Amino acid sequence: MSERGVKISVRDLHKSFGPKKVLAGLNLDVGAGESLVVIGGSGTGKSVLIKCIIGLLTPDSGSIKIDGEETVGISRNAREHVLSKFGMLFQGSALFDSLPVWQNVAFGLIQGRGMESKQAKKIAIETLASVGLGPEVGELWPAELSGGMQKRVALARAIAARPEIIFFDEPTTGLDPIMGDVINGLIVNCVRKLGATALSITHDMASTRKIADRVAMIHEGRFHFVGTPDEIRATDDPVVRGFIEGRPDLTAEAA
Predict the structure, then answer these.
(1) What is the mean pLDDT of residues 163-190?
(2) Which of 97, 99, 181, 236 has its CA 20 to 30 A from that of 25?
(3) Cα–Cα distance for residue pair 62/74, rounded to 1 Å
(4) Residue range(s) defining the domain that contains residue 50
(5) Is-contact 220 22, C-beta < 8 A?
(6) What one-character-per-residue DSSP string does 132-179 give?
(7) Residue 72 lies in a domain
(8) Which helix (H) or strand (E) holds 248?
(9) Quick one: DSSP state of residue 56?
(10) Total domain count, the chain
(11) Taking CA 102 as the corner, what is the angle to CA 157 and CA 197, rounded to the nearest 5 degrees?
(12) Which of the 8 DSSP states describes residue 23?
C-alpha cells in the first residue's frame, strides 16, 4: 500500500438482499492517490460496494473507513462531511435535463457549498475547458449534446469541487472505442492533476488497463484477485481468465 496511507478501508463487509448474499466478507484498501478498478460479472456486487461506501446503502455488517474514520452508522452531519470529499461520474452521465450544462457542472458548488452563481459559473467554465469543452458548451442543454460530450460534462461535474475521492461507474458504457479511449485519457489526466483517489467499476478491460494502478475482481462476494493490470493480464487463474476472455466454461471448471 502507498506510503501516503489508506484513503478507503473496507473490512469484512456483508450485504444481502433477502436470501441473496451479494457481499460476503469483502475486504479492500485503496491508497491515497491510487486508482483502483473493480471488475466482475453482472450482479457480483460492484455497484453495491460503491453504494455502501457512499452511504446510499447500509451494509448488514462490516467497517468502512474514510481517512481512518468509521462511516458505518455515523450521524447525518458526519455523513455530509464525508460526502463533501466525494465526486462521482454516474454510468448514464445522469445530467439534469432542466439545467444548462454550466449549472450541471456547478451543481455541487452551488447546492452543496452555497457558492454564488457567478463564481460557480467561472469554475464550471474552467472545468469544462479541462475536459476539452469550450465556454459555449456551458450554455447548451444536455439534450443538445452527443453521448461523448455528455460524458465529458459528467466528468467535469465530478471534478468541479476538487474532490479527494472520485467514483467512476462504468465510465465508458455506451461509447464507441475511440470516444471511450478519449474519456479514459481524460479520467487519468484529471485524477492525476487533482491528486485524487479513484475507485472505478467497469466490465471494460481496455478501460481497466488504461486507468488502473491496481485491479480487483469480485467473485462470490469477495475479492478473488487483486493485482496490477499486467498481473491480471498474465494470470492463469481460471475464474479471472473466464471473465477476461468471456468464457464462463473456465469459471465453471474452477468451481
Answers:
(1) 90
(2) 236
(3) 13
(4) 1-85+164-176+196-255
(5) no
(6) T--GGGGGS-GGGS-HHHHHHHHHHHHHTT--SEEEEESTTTT--HHH
(7) yes
(8) helix 248-254
(9) S
(10) 1
(11) 15
(12) E
Q: Is residue 126 part of a domain?
A: no
Identity of residue 61: S
With cell 481468465, the residue in question is 241
> Which residue, chain included where needed, has cell 467497517?
63
C-beta separation of 191 from 198 below 8 A: yes
More confident residue, 2 or 220: 220
Q: List the one residue out of 248, 130, 122 whose CA is nearest residue 190.
A: 130
Residue 134 lies inside a defined structural domain of this protein = no
76: exposed, middle or buried (C-beta count within 10 Å: 0-12, 13-18, 19+)? exposed
Tens of pLDDT, residues 65-101: 999 999 999 998 898 889 889 999 988 888 999 999 9
User: Cα torsion for 51, 52, 57, 59, to the nearest 10°?
Assistant: 150
Query: Which whole number is the average pLDDT over 165-184?
Result: 90
In a domain, 225, yes or no: yes
C-beta of residue 227 within 8 angstroms of C-beta of residue 54: no
- CATH number of the domain residue 28 falls in: 3.40.50.300
Our separate counts of H helices and E strands in the chain read 11, 10
The grid cell for 49 is: 460496494
Interval 53-72: pLDDT, tens:
999 999 999 999 999 999 99
